[in-house]
Amino acid sequence: QNQAAQPICKFCNTGTYQDQSAQTGCKNCPAAHYQNQVAKDSCKTCSPGYFQNQATKTSCKACGAGTYQDQYAKSG
Asked: Which of 27, 31, 40, 71 has minimal CB crowding within 10 Å?
């Protein structure tokens, strides 16, 4: 019986990460951060002009007309 090899370890989903070995789950990306790829060991930081006020997200939100944000990693 030949079966396709199944991965033993599972990938962390988008919006999550795992930066340590031998863990049983993934960590949520906190507010002001995001992750839009699977199987990552860190979250990305929102750039100036963008923010994210919720955890476990896959992108940052753009500041609207009449507003601005001039720093990295802002949650609102």
From this structure: 71
Stated pTM of the model = 0.84
CA 38 to chain centre: 9
Element of type H or E holding 33: strand 33-34
User: For the chain, first and last CA: distance in Å?
Assistant: 55
The 10s digit of each residue's pLDDT in 62-72 is 999 999 999 98
d(CA 74, CA 47): 8
Give the dihedral sign, CA 36/30/22/19: positive
Q: Report the alpha-carbon distance of residue 72 to residue 46 in Å, rounded.
A: 6
Query: Which tokens hold the place of 73?
Result: 């990693």
Instruction: Retrieve residue 19's tokens.
Output: 């930066």
